[in-house]
Structure formats: C-alpha cells, structure tokens
Amino acid sequence: MGNDLLFRALSSPTRITILQLLARKEMHVSGLARHIGISVPVIARHVKILENAGLLRKRVIGNTHLLRPRLDRLEKLLETFIEESSVELPSHATIVDALRQVPGVNVKKVGEHQYITSIDGTKGYYIYEVDGNLPKKPVDEYVLDQDTTLEIKKIVTIERKKIHVTIKQKDGN
Known about the structure:
By secondary structure, the protein is an alpha+beta fold. It has six helices and nine strands, in the order ααααββαβαββββββ. Helix 3 (29-36) crosses helix 4 (40-52).
C-alpha cells in the first residue's frame, strides 16, 4: 500500500476530524455523523477512504462496527522525515555521552539523574528507546557496550482524559 493513499486520506479536514475524534474514543459511523453534523452516507465514504489507507480498525460487536484509528500507520509514514545522526563513542559510555554529541538535544540534571529536556528548542518530556526497546534506566545510567540505535520520542500531551476516582471508605465510618 503506497503513501499516496495515506496522503489522499489525510487531505480532507473531515477525515482529520474523524481521526481526532476516534483517537479519544471508539465510535460507530452514525455516532461520528451525529458528532460532526453530516449524513451517515457521507461519513461512511470518508471512513471507507480511511480504511483503504489502513488508518482505521474495526471492532465488530453484533451488528455494530466500532472504529478506532491506527495511529501506528501515521507514525510509520512520519519515520521518513526523522532526522538521523551518527556518533562514535568509546565502550562503556552512557546514552548521555551520545546525546551530548547530537546538536539540538539538551540534557539537564534534575535531582539525581539527567533527562532529555528539549530537542531543537522544543521543550517537553522525552523518552528514549534502545534498539526498539524501552529501557528501565535513566539516560545517565544506561551504559552502551555494543553498536546501538537510539530513538528519542516526545511524549505528546493528551488533550482530554477522564478519570473516575473512587475512594474506599474505612470500615465503620
């Protein structure tokens, strides 16, 4: 499946809105139509284009088809544009040593550990992966002893989250 289908699917503001809504919660076609304010047949055509581009998944419950986005397809498309760097380090260097050689990556000590605080001036919270795996060590404790691929990812803020908290009552109160 070529990227042309993806770009065509993403060329419509309505389809972008559909993906944004579905990123928040699963919905069916008629629910999307009501929320956006257009007819079910029109939404169904947009959904079909998104499905053909591989941007939607369906979960079938009886006669109801719940839709959710496949954001991994968008991430894969964007990998084409990821800036890549190469650095050379002595054995037993840390990830911080590698990051300090990459222009635009800022690492700052916060408390006892060092953290990635911005990339190319964009402040935020960043995580890192080593050869596709999420380590359980801070960047200043992870020692590199073999050729490795590091990937830095910004943690994107969630626009909306609903959390129901129930407080257990102590017995007798």
